[in-house]
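Hi C.,

You asked whether I'd gotten around to modeling the 257-residue construct. I have! Everything is below, sequence then structure, no commentary in between.
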Amino acid sequence: MAKWTAFPYDNAAFRYDATSLKKQWARLHAGDAEPWPKDAAVLQAWLHFHAGEFQQAHEAGLAAGGAGITVANKAQAIYANYLEKKEKVKLEMFLEVAERAEAQQAEDPKNPNAWYWQAYAIGRYGQGISVAKALAQGLGSKVKTALETTIKLAPKHADAHIALGAFHAEVIDKVGKLLGKTQGADAATGLKLFEQALKLNPTSAIAMIERANGLVMLEGDKRMKEAESLYADAAAGEPLDAMECLDVELAREELED
């Protein structure tokens, strides 16, 4: 496997051990509702993930199997989204995560993150090839079904609420309200999902960023001030791990643009 790009920021504060990670686990996993790992090898993979050692997390997760597949999928999906420079490689990585998550669903159908990482990876892949093209390929309904299943299995899964809100917003933004209806997209539902995500995970920079984007997509310039305020809040966040650091940096870049 080619060497992945290293995490580009100082990660000294994100190097946990088992004891310090356990203290922060609930806060770090308010987004994905992932339970504390029972297996030492899976825990080790999570320690790599939170430190921004995404390739090691991916490899350790695959080697551990079982719940380790979730770490591998999250590490690869987050790495592809934020750090992979080559578009072709990025899209291939998303497809790989989606396939692995689908296999995980077959093994463990009640695992919410088996559904979530499939949805996330297909959704990001769809953005990469263009939302309209993805909808024409029937990927929209796959994303929607997988996210709705995630929420059914884990009602407090904040990230699934964000992603499902983003689905409604992106579809309406790209194909309009009328055609959006045929894809099951609805503006009011999207706005409600963003709101719920922030109630579930109020310190999440990515929830603020996605809600800001969604408000503008669904309601235009009249929500611009609110969107800017959400970006400012996200940019002022204190990240507790590498992924949160990447989200905060994204918000800062958006504010500078």
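If it helps when you're writing up: Residues 131 and 141 are 12 Å apart (CA to CA).

Thanks,
B.
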